[in-house]
Automatic annotation (TrEMBL):
Family matches, as InterPro entries: FBXL15_LRR, Leu-rich_rpt, Leu-rich_rpt_Cys-con_subtyp, LRR_dom_sf
Annotated ranges, domain F-box/LRR-repeat protein 15-like leucin rich repeat: 142-322
Gene Ontology terms: biological process: SCF-dependent proteasomal ubiquitin-dependent protein catabolic process
Cited SMART domains: LRR_CC (SM00367)
Name of the featured protein: Ubiquitin-protein ligase
Pfam entry (one): LRR_6
Annotated GO CC locations: SCF ubiquitin ligase complex
Length: 346
């Protein structure tokens, strides 16, 4: 009996402390049923109950309300509802009315793919989480500038914002973001087709701390906006896939972003060797570069990239660049010794 007591009081807590930090949320919940001792041990570690993950789950709205009603989730910091089913405005209203206090410490909220949530839902949920830092609502066509107005009003500390695919958001939202989130570090406005140069320019003027900027599939933007990306000294990741109006002049300005590590220029059809050479000379920490589909680049830019980025480049995509010849593995490694991924046209 004494041995069992020692086992329960000393050994079990030590083992569970090690094992539980590596388990998924579902496994942790299952372990609660294993024994009273394990149940007590798990509940005695608040750090284990800071995440609620309902990714792709059914009946997620009701599950969320039930979970947040439990004492162990009183200080939850991260909620993932990405592509969860049955999550609507009414469930978010229930969260606020029944267990809103549980969201006071929330820092990360992922609503990606929750297409039934509207501006009302955004108003309700952001009203309960003033410490929110990361907000993602990818692929939501119901949310408008009204929802973003509620976000910036209720959550003052957002540094990571994903609005990808929110097609009903306009420059007004970007103006609000720029004026309220000047410490913003990551912004994704992929396929926000109502955005124009005006919105992006306000962001680039006010948000100089940006490290990640995703402008994928925004074909209406022009060099007037792209040139201002040079104002981002801390920028590390830039996605310009489909930037049909980007020219060598704009790209030469972007080359002033000395800390750039990843640059996607896929289908930037007006770019030539001139712009890529400017990038090679200015961005000497570059690790990933995609030139996919650009007919205006040749072996010349590859030679210059080798001169300035040979020790850093690990991924290079020149698929569809018909003026760049195919090379053997040994030839590539002479140009880029650390290259792990090289894609060429067939």
């Amino acid at each position: 009996m004494a041995a069992e007591t020692i086992w329960n009081r000393e050994t079990v807590p030590k083992v569970m402390k090690i094992v539980s930090t590596r388990l998924q949320q579902r496994d942790l919940i299952t372990l609660l049923l294993a024994s009273p001792s394990i149940h007590r041990t798990l509940l005695s570690h608040p750090s284990l109950w800071l995440v609620l993950d309902f990714h792709e789950m059914s009946n997620a709205g009701d599950r969320l309300v039930s979970a947040l009603s439990l004492p162990r989730y009183r200080n939850v910091k991260h909620i993932n509802l990405e592509f969860a089913q049955d999550i609507e405005d009414k469930q978010l209203e229930n969260v606020k009315s029944k267990c809103g206090d549980s969201l006071l410490d929330l820092e990360i909220l992922n609503l990606n793919g929750c297409q039934r949530i509207s501006d009302k839902g955004i108003e309700v949920v952001t009203n309960t989480c003033p410490k929110l830092k990361v907000f993602s609502i990818y692929w939501n066509v119901r949310v408008t500038d009204v929802g973003i107005t509620h976000l910036v009003k209720n959550c003052r500390f957002v540094v990571d914002l994903n609005l990808s695919g929110c097609k009903n958001i306009t420059d007004k939202s970007l103006h609000l973001v720029a004026d309220n989130y000047q410490e913003l570090e990551s912004l994704n406005i992929t396929r926000c087709i109502k955005m124009t140069d005006s919105g992006l320019q306000r962001i680039l003027l006010n948000c100089s701390s940006l490290q990640t900027l995703n402008l994928y599939a925004l074909s209406t933007l022009t060099d007037e906006a792209y040139k201002m990306i040079s104002r981002l000294p801390h920028l590390r990741f830039l996605d310009l896939c489909g930037a049909q109006n980007l020219t060598d002049d704009g790209l030469s300005c972007i080359a002033m972003c000395k800390n750039l590590v990843s640059l996607n220029l896929t289908w930037c059809v007006q770019v030539s060797d001139v712009g890529v050479i400017a990038i090679a000379q200015g961005c000497r920490s570059l690790e990933l570069l995609s030139l996919f589909g650009i007919l205006g680049v040749s072996d010349r830019c590859l030679e210059v990239l080798s001169s300035f980025c040979s020790n850093t480049l690990t991924t290079l995509d020149v698929n569809g660049c018909i003026n760049i010849k195919n090379r053997s593995r040994d030839q590539l490694l002479k140009l880029f010794p650390n290259l792990m991924c090289f894609k060429v046209h067939s």
